[in-house]
Amino acid sequence: MSDVEAETEHEDLPRGSERELIEYYFNRGLTYRCITLMLGKHHGVDMNERTLKRRLKDYGLRRRDAVNDDLVQRVRDLILLEICTGPDSLSGYRTMWHVLRLRHNIHVPRRLVESLLREVDPRGVELRKRRCLHRRTYVSPGANFCWHIDGYDKLKPFGFSIHGCVDGFSRRILWLEVQRSNKNPRLMARYFLDNVKAAHGCPARVYTDRGTENGLIAAMQCYLRAEGVDEYAGVKAHKYVKSVRNQRIEGYWSHYRRQRASWWIDFFNDLHESDILDLTSEIHREALWFSFAEVLQNDLDKVKDYWNSHRIRKSKHATVSGVPDMMYFLPEEFGKIDCLFPVSDKLREMKDKLQELGAEDDIDPIWEEYFQYVIERNGLSHPTSVLEAGNLFQKLVQFAKG
Predict the structure, then answer these.
(1) How far apart are CA 125 and CA 144, in angstroms?
(2) Helix (H, G, I), strand (E, B) or coil at 134
């Protein structure tokens, strides 16, 4: 079947044939209704639920795979693989159930995943039971009403800073990016403009803390909304808030710490305690960044993909439940509206201004060029896993020290 020719409204949405689109949305756990709505609204494919079910049958896609001993063993092996090779070891059974569906196209009962995870990781299950979190009530008129932006510095001692943004209503992650520093306003502004371009508009409001790195974002947001006539137009389009008030992104950082960052922190600390990593050495710091930056970014991309496609449960705190992607792209299905404001030609003007300010990143090109030379000269390759990154790091340090 030929590729769907209709242009998508948002650059984050998938492209491909009708079958590829159906498989993509099905494996993300969408309901039949949501799949047909997404196909019709964003891909120009008109299809009713009866036709969709017939397509799914033709493609061999089922909500529940037939459970047998071979499938159970395969699920057990995949769970072991996920929890033994990286930060997925911090995931609970709901996360693991969704990961199996999202990454491996395996559809099994959630209770089966729970029992297998309890069997292979009893200590992790007990540790996750002890956590306690109290949330405040959050109210929003719909998607793109407010973007919450903040940096995450828990990995900063090892040379990795993370910057992120969450849509307030849907809780959809708009970006998660790793860089050398969270203090470079040009980098933060680029992330903001890239997502404004992808969405074809800017939000009604943006919340950030008072860090100097957010000054450009604040100015750009206010300029993009300068011609608005609503109560949040102009200078009110951006608001500086304390971290405790920027609750959507701060709440996500808490989740990220439990589900991912703790593993990375322990991993780098183990390297340091084992005298493999010397954080006082410039060679070690630069080699660590060169070896692990792409691996960590790939992990952040997986985290973003998981979060945006998982189901947020109902809460007593009056927050809307559902899948972040669906709440963001189909807010009308949840009784809300899309608050996105078009930006017309202002986006190009902002990008030109940003380019005039000069270089965006803080990476030393000398070290980058040297390590790339070492890789090419010695037949090495860029890492695709934590293990490969660790091996490359040690080799780069050895070559650099002669």
Answers:
(1) 36
(2) coil
Burial (CB count within 10 angstroms: exposed 0-12, middle 13-18, buried 19+), residue 307: buried
Q: Is 197 exposed, middle or buried (0-12, 13-18, 19+ CB in 10 A)?
A: middle
Give residue for tokens 């072991």: 80
List the one residue out of 384, 400, 373, 191 whose CA is nearest residue 295: 384
Please report, as a single letter, which amino acid is at residue 158. F
pLDDT tens readout for residues 227-272: 888 999 999 999 999 877 788 899 899 999 998 999 999 999 999 9
Burial class of residue 359 in the structure, from the number of CB atoms within 10 Å of its CB (0-12 exposed, 13-18 middle, 19+ buried): exposed
One-letter amino acid of 218: A
Whole-number Å distance between alpha carbons of 240 and 247: 13
Instruction: Report how far residue 187's alpha carbon sits from residue 214's, in angstroms, rounded to the nearest whole number.
Output: 10
Helix (H, G, I), strand (E, B) or coil at 239: strand
| Confidence at residue 50, expressed as pLDDT on a 0 to 100 scale | 94
Q: Are 393 and 371 in contact (CB under 8 A)?
A: no
The confidence score (pLDDT) of residue 6 equals 44
What are the structural domain ranges in the chain?
Answer: 69-129, 142-266+317-356
3-state secondary structure of 244: coil
The second-level CATH assignment, the architecture, of 142-266+317-356 is 2-Layer Sandwich (3.30)
What's the token pair of residue 74? Answer: 């395969």
Distance CA 298, CA 292 (A): 10
Q: 2 pLDDT band (50/70/90 cuts)?
A: very low
Q: How many residues does the chain have?
A: 402
Indicate yes or no: pTM above 0.90: no
| Secondary structure of residue 64 in the 3-state scheme | coil
Phi, psi angles (nearest 5°) of residue 174 = -90, -35
User: Tens digit of pLDDT for each residue in 300-325?
Assistant: 999 999 999 999 888 766 578 899 99
CA atoms within 13 A on the CB side of 6: 16
